[in-house]
Amino acid sequence: MALKITTLEERPEFASSLWDMDHTWPEFVLNDPIADLFYAIATTTYAGYVLVADDDAEPGRLVARGCMIPYLAEGGELPEDGWDGVIRSGWLARTRGLPADGISALEISVRSDLQGRGLSSVMLAAMRERAARLGHTELVAPVRPNRKHLEPRTPMTEYASRTRPDGLPHDAWLRVHVRAGGKIVKVAPRSMVVAGTLDEWRKWTDLPFDRTGAVEVPGALTPVHCDVDQDHAVYVEPNVWVSHPLT
Question: Which end of the chain, N or C, is less packed with Cβ atoms under 10 Å?
Fold first, then answer.
């Protein structure tokens, strides 16, 4: 498979099918309200920050995508609200006409039938290259470890610090980032927040949500907090901040 990776700005024909690609994202994650500050305008305002890939066997059919956003880093620490934080910061920078001095990865998604072939690492390399070409000296990423959902009650700080005998992270997706030159910085404890009524959570998960307390949801990195009396449930997802120096 020979991948052709470009920006959406260079290949706007992918705009209409960008979100149609088969993926493995849980439904509830797609209901983070902050996401629309980026995704609703990703194919227009942020087309230069979206990478698209197809291959020579099926040219024109999306194989993978990668999304980044410029944001206001201002030399400060990486935000505790991770993914939500950089999207909000990027939106504020754009609407207020402020120069964004940082750039963050938001996602790398590979078509479901092609996962497990190392394409995510290829997309990450392309993302690093694109960020450097845009003049940035660092790409940061609020990483969603891909095996953490199997241990929803394990604290993220404990999970992210696990290593193999060779010193690399125990988690495969964190391992890809470190092998690419990234450094684990810290945990973003409230990187993504999804709140909904109990009916909404039932629709998103096919679970009953009929008892107050912590609910383990397939695909969730931590339990969802359910309150039956108040008719709502809230999911607060931690991510892991990784810094990729580009010089």
Answer: C
Q: What is the pLDDT of residue 75?
A: 83
What's the count of helices (H) and strands (E) in the chain, helices before strands? 6, 9
Whether residue 178 contacts residue 184, with contact meaning beta carbons closer than 8 Å, is answered with yes
DSSP 167: S
CA-CA distance, 6 to 15, in Å (whole number)? 13
pLDDT in tens, 98-143: 999 999 999 999 999 999 899 999 999 999 999 999 999 999 999 9
CB atoms within 10 A of CB 10: 12
Give the DSSP letter string of 178-205. Answer: HHTT-EEEEEEEEEEEEEE-HHHHHHHH
Residues β-bridged to residue 3:
55
Instruction: Mention every residue, 6+ apart, whose C-beta is less than 8 A from residue 100.
Output: 70, 71, 72, 73, 90, 93, 94
- For every residue of 38-65, DSSP letters joined together read HHTTTTTTTGGGEEEEEETTSTTS--EE
- Residues 6, 7, 9: CA angle, nearest 5 degrees: 130
Structural domains for the chain: 3-192+239-245 (3.40.630.30)
Q: Is the pLDDT confidence value at 198 over 90?
A: yes
